[in-house]
Amino acid sequence: MWRQGVHITGSSLWCDALRATELCFVSSALALGKSRKRAGTLLCTQTTLQLLTEMGRAPQGPQLLSPLRRPFFWGTLRLELFASGSDPGSASLWVKLPSEERVIYAGMPSERSSSLVEPLQVRQAESLVIAAPSAPTHVELPSTEQLAQQIVSSLSEASLLGVPLVVRCSSLMTLLELLPQLKLPCVKLSVELHRALGFCQALPGFPTIQTASTRSAKPGDLVFWPTSSPLPKRPDGTMLLTLPDGLSLSGLVRYARESGVRHVYLTAGYHPTVAAKLAAHKIVAEPIGPPEQLGLFAQSLSSLL
Predict the structure, then answer these.
(1) Residue 51: which of 269, 267, 245, 228 has the closest Cα?
(2) What is the pLDDT of residues 19-71, one digit of tens each?
(3) pTM (2 decimals)?
(4) Among 101, 153, 232, 270, whose CB has the most other CB atoms within 10 angstroms?
């Protein structure tokens, strides 16, 4: 059920929750915005905690850090973190309840291939909780080259109009692959994204990209902003784009089928066409989350549909 985050009913486990909980799994550093101090234990990978700390999002309190692919028990729950393929440190969570039912909280996994993160993995379960914001609008995701072309075109239009272009994103890896394609001398990022990319670029193998941090968007600017943070101060008429991240419709269907699930709960990306596509494989889909947020991430770059 949804209670300011996903709560596995009948357990002490919450996922990507905005409130104090007994045990809270955080799937990636960009999954949550800033929230009040938590009283419970934070469960994540070491890299996710480091990123949260760099971004100023790490809550105070006890921490349970787990490597990927190492099952363990929390009371009567059997848990395992496994690679979600989206960002450094990001993970999905497999849960086995005392009833023997298995649940996957996937976060927002990605099929995009990259040598910088572990590729997407799957586990077997009966139920899947997942964010697939791009599924309603993209059967397959556009390439980084296509995204770069669209952003350059939109930036030219915004410059002619005398307004900034704010690009919302939910994946550090998408940014790291996209920014070199733009071939700009310096790119403006939100303070949090700037700090997060700085941390990533200090890791082995990550590219070096010139970026600057900002708290606002001015006419003529191109500014990247995380979807999990409130939009920056900006003039009227600002152009907004949301990068398609996570799984496409085809990717969501593949993930659900390979996991063997019969029930999918979408925290982002639910649409009747998505439900119908899953139903064709005898998989029931329904939304989970506050009504005003269910369609938040369904925005995309309309010209790439």
Answers:
(1) 228
(2) 767 899 999 999 877 665 566 899 999 999 999 999 988 877 889 999 999 99
(3) 0.91
(4) 270
